[in-house]
Amino acid sequence: MYEGEPIVGVVFEPSADLMFTAVKGGQCQLNGRRITASNKGIGRFSSIGLDSLFDEEVPKWAQEVIKRTKYRNLGTAALHLSYVASGGFIAAILNMGKLWDIAAGGLLVECSGGKVTDLKGGKIYPVDLGRYGGEGFEVLASNRKSQGEIIGLLESY
Fold this sequence. Notes:
This protein has helices at 60-68, 77-85, 99-111, 144-155, and strands spanning 8-13, 18-23, 28-30, 33-35, 47-50, 70-72, 91-97, 115-117, 137-142.
């Protein structure tokens, strides 16, 4: 992080020997090869990484995502974001992502041509690192095509 924004990101998935890397202003890579976010919209065969922690019950918007897509949970926000960067997911929706969960993966998404925002499309960065106390962020990481569709879906609930 530099001045409240991620500038280098690395996510390693040991079970598949996958190394995702990015440098701000540069390319996103998977095992040394350039990757890009997909250009697909929401659909029955589109995958979205969905957080599994909710306060009490699964919100209506999450139920709609589950109905309309092939939702996935890989067990880690960093991997969800990495799969958005590589085009495997059209999006990842996180409702309690900590900075250490989202910084590297978020940079991967941005360097691959995707977008990282809050659930309403607003900016997440810069973060005041001196005041950050471990609060969770609501994050939408997506390809550019699905961003507006997903924000519309979230706002409708």
